[in-house]
Amino acid sequence: MSDSVFEKPSRRSFIKIGGLAIGGLALAACAPKASTGSTGATGGTEAKLGVGNNGQVGKGRAGATGDSLLIAGFQWGPPATFNPLSPTAAWPAAANVMQIVYETLLRWNIATGEVMPGLAKEYKLDGTKTITLTMQDGVTFSDASPCTAKDVVASFELGKKNTGISTAAFWAAADAIEAPDDKTVVVTVSAKTKNVGQVLRMLTETYILPAAVFSKIADDKLPTEIMDKPIGTGPFTLSKADQTQVVLALNEKYWGQTFYGGLPVMKQIIHPIFKSNEDGNIKFQAGELDIMQQFVSQIWKMWEGGKPVGTYLKDKPYYVPGSMPMLLMNTTKKGLDNAVVRKAIASAIDYASIAETAMSGYSAEVQPSLILPSGAESKFFNKEDAAANGWKFDAAAAEKLLTDAGAKKGSDGVYVLDGTRVGPYKLITPTGWTDWNASCEIIAKSLKAIGIDCSTNFPQQAETTQAIQGGSFDMAVWYVSGVNPATPWARFKDIMSQSEVQPIGKTTFANYGRWKNDAVEALLTEASQATDDASKKAAYDKLDALYRKEVPACPIMYRPDEFYEYNATNFFNWPDEKNSYAPPMFRGAGNTWMYKIKKIAG
Fold this sequence. Notes:
The protein is an alpha+beta fold. It has a domain of about 240 residues: Dipeptide-binding Protein, domain 3 (Roll), CATH 3.10.105. It is built from 15 helices and 27 strands. Helix 6 packs antiparallel against helix 9 and helix 7 runs antiparallel to helix 10. It is globular and about 75 Å long.
């Protein structure tokens, strides 16, 4: 796992790689097609799409807020800076969130796995050697200055000037980036890794910045420079920011209105800053927010109560799975250094209880795999091997693993194996991450029930991060790569890679459990360099089989990459599974819905 923000899913909270070796046009330059937004009218009542899950819409809002999009779930404190290179950048300058002030070369679609046009109208692949991108016509920054291929190159080269910024991750996947002219960008894929998927991931997640602005900042100041007037290529500019809200204004001269078929529907975007999820949920239910990205316990109660609230999926799990929170096990600790104990732990966990209780039913059944069994990754999932050689919740089977290995319970009811008491273990995750806190309590209870001594502790996020990265933890619930153009490879790397592991006490950004295996790196290389789906699946089958045998960590739930939930009080024609013109996203391809939602007259 990297310290890059690319690896960090929101807490308020696929490209089809097959045939990558075949050069040629990889995406079309045409603008997205418009959605009809309605099915007609009868008796003066229009039958609308993209409404609440109960079929309801509101009456609209009058006045200035009627032309505003009210959004929440991204900013949880007073904005300190809008410097996109800062680790504390405020929304929407924070890395890999909504690309509405800063934009990326390409956009990614979580529903289809496609990589779509962004600032680049097309890209071409030359096997695993190069990626050539052609810029859209007439791209400008919000100050009206042109955005050219030279700005693109300068944006990525900032990661060479300061290795502490997110863009530095690009240089682990690419050897060079050049601009032969103002409209052409050529990326040379790393000759060592040949990982085209990882490069494409960076191209969908890295903001293109004005070289004229960032070239004036000292290299060592790049992540700390305070910015209050962000200049990007996006359809919105910063209008106001204080401790209560962030307000964006529509850029009427936005370069992309020809490409997108017009400007976004809303004149401004307002993000109120709430103290807690609950404060935001109350406003959302009341129709004082249009869309948000935050956890809502039992969201169905809102539409059952008559509110025009909607989610992308109309039945459980309501949200499209996109991330896989993991139970990490520190394999340098006695007991946890034994694969039998680790598999017993994985077998003892009551996953259904986590899904229903901690996650309000928002998680599908967890599989013994580092591959999501649905969506774009499903083509790589080996269902038969997972069933034959994996695990599921079975307390009796968990204890049998231990007793077959020679473990015996002590007088305190805790197993002892090879002279080592199986525990006590502290299970940590940050305080306030309520669904994860609840999951940890279920895990600890599950382990105690079979004779493994485990208790929970919820430190502050910074303390938790330090313990996990430094290797002082016993067990932890933590994140790995969510679904993106480089997964499932990136997830295998996060959990199993040997190349980045540091000794205990030194910060590491992958394989936090410090599990050791000599076969992994060759398998990771085989998967990253495969050029078609069949060879990729063959490599992933080997990686997943090794993972199931050794169990260095285990998934505890499937979580949405983003909590996409809307309220049709002021707008309708939201994307959902019945109106699927755009994916349930805020970043990347998700920006399509800003142009297609329709205002309800207020």
